[in-house]
Amino acid sequence: MIPVILSGGSGSRLWPLSRSMRPKQFLGVTDSRSLFQLTLKRLEGANGTSPVHPIIVANADHRFLVGEQCREMGVTPADILLEPVARNTAPAIAAAAFAALAAAVKGEDPVLLVLPSDHVFADVPAFHRAVAVGLQAAEAGGMVTFGIVPTHPETGYGYVKAAQALNSEKAVPVEKFVEKPNLATAQAYIKDGGYTWNSGMFMFKASVFLEELATCNPAMHAACQAAWKASKKDFEFVRLDAEAFAKCPSDSVDYAVMERTKKAVVVPLDAGWNDVGAWSAVWQVLPQDAQGNAVRGDVILHDTKNSYVHADRRLVSLIGVQDLVVVETSDAVLVAHKDKAQDVKKVVDQLKAQKRSEVDLHREVFRPWGSYDSVDHGERFQVKRITVNPGAKLSVQMHHHRAEHWVVVSGTALVRIGEEERMVTENQSVYIPVGIVHSLENPGKVPLHLIEVQSGSYLGEDDIVRFEDKYGRANSKSEGAK
Predict the structure, then answer these.
(1) pLDDT tens digits for range 218-231
(2) Which residues contact 19 (CB under 8 A, 6 or more apart)?
(3) Nearest Cα to 404, choosing from 423, 421, 419, 384?
(4) Which of 147, 142, 266, 159 has its CA nearest to residue 204?
(5) Measured distance CA(325)–CA(306) in Å, rounded
(6) Cα angle vertex 29, ends 28, 32, to 5°?
(7) 3-state secondary structure at position 441
């Protein structure tokens, strides 16, 4: 069994904590570990699979996040496949299936356990038991969907109707998949007892999935096969061919295959599942006080009920309110009624229309070498706090419009300015004039912290010419900032 983790989502309903360049699956939303890391942890012991070597399908912009968070968990992926463009879940799974078959020993046909990277479970052993049941069905040629046993009439999920009475000990045939219902229909589904929520988790042999995809959507199969065959290895990543993958139809695995195949079976899953799809869902899964409040960070409440408060950088206080969601970050604050939490996406859409940077980036931006925090800015100047990890090196680069001053706060920097190279230690500083090639490296064993003061006529992150980079980054705006 090979776990396939889909981590390409944007998580826009958890804005302002979730941004496109660091979406919710890579954030500690419910735990000190990220949702992605909790997914890796959950796989330990599933069908005896330990250590876990998953295939991860990720947005190319998130590749260093994936690599770093896997290393923090001690996980070595079988592959990290990079999608050049988003094409929904069916093409992502197809690419993983081609990768799994290519790596398999001759004659093997691996079973894929397909999981989103941003779900949580209260009962991990129950999840493991359902996986064991699904594995038996998948090895027999079935295409398994895991149906969440519903706890209430829910209008925000699709449903799966079983053709027979649901049985936690075996998979049963699927009668049909149904779209998100209205409340009356959802209530009827709950009363019927044969419906489960569509979890977006699946299990099948790699060859079976590809055969069904070729039958149900031959254009998608052909495009994914071409993208895999023309893929290129890039350090620890595999880049799917951009031209071929861009030609692939965009569709979910439900629409592309599962609703059309005659091999679909469902395994009921009752494990305290939550897809953490909105701030109200985060409130549900976190511990609550006697007044029904869940908080994270530095929060003081008075006469407040049934609210969720996330304080990222500052003290946040609520007085005399109820049923609110309040999320504070260094550059944005969200206040919403808990019943309107799904509408956060509408705010994100407005930010996109206005081309606001808060859609994509936090004030603190993470890079493969460390991070930088934009402390202050004004006309012709900008101040950043930069952290460089031990052994990491920023790209060799130059700027056309800005000069830079670096002041080392702690640690040791190996600095190259033009042809000169020297060590800079605590309380020392250097000046990099406009147009001079330079680089910065941390040769030490502890993090390097420094303050950077930029000055010049243009301070945009796209004012960078990169000559050399150990991380293989392109010279583009999205890859800018050192």
Answers:
(1) 999 999 999 999 99
(2) 358, 359, 360, 361, 362
(3) 384
(4) 142
(5) 9
(6) 35
(7) strand
**Which residues have CB under 8 Å from 455's CB, separation 6+?**
380, 381, 402, 403, 404, 405
Strands 237-239 and 79-83, bridge-based pairing: parallel
Of the chain, the percentage scoring pLDDT greater than 90 comes to 83
Structure tokens given for 163: 């053709």
How far is it, in rounded angstroms, from Cα 472 to Cα 234? 8
**How far apart, in whole angstroms, are the C-alpha atoms of residue 238 and residue 91?**
15
Considering the chain, what is the average pLDDT of its residues? 92
| Domain 364-468 classification at class level | mainly beta
The answer to whether the beta carbons of residues 101 and 228 sit under 8 Å apart is no
d(C-alpha 224, C-alpha 238), whole Å: 14
What would the two tokens of residue 255 be?
């629409």
Report the alpha-carbon distance of residue 383 to residue 147 in Å, rounded: 51
What are 366's two structure tokens?
């993470």
Please enumerate in sequence order all residues whose Cβ is within 8 A of that of 308, keeping only pairs 6 or more positions apart, or say none. Answer: 279, 280, 282, 283, 286, 293, 294, 295, 324, 325, 326, 338
Q: Which fold has domain 2-274?
A: Spore Coat Polysaccharide Biosynthesis Protein SpsA; Chain A (3.90.550)
| Secondary structure class of 261 (helix, strand, coil) | coil
Say whether pTM exceeds 0.90. no
Write down the number of H helices and E strands in the chain: 11, 30
At 204, the amino acid letter reads: F
Interior/surface letters 335-358, b for 16+ CB within 10 angstroms, e for the rest: ebebeebeebeebbeebeeeeeeb
User: What's phi and psi for 232, nearest 5 deg?
Assistant: -125, 140
- Residue ranges of domains in the chain: 2-274, 279-347, 364-468
* Spatial separation of the C-alpha atoms in residues 293 and 450, rounded to whole Å: 39
Between CA 357 and CA 56 the distance in angstroms is 28
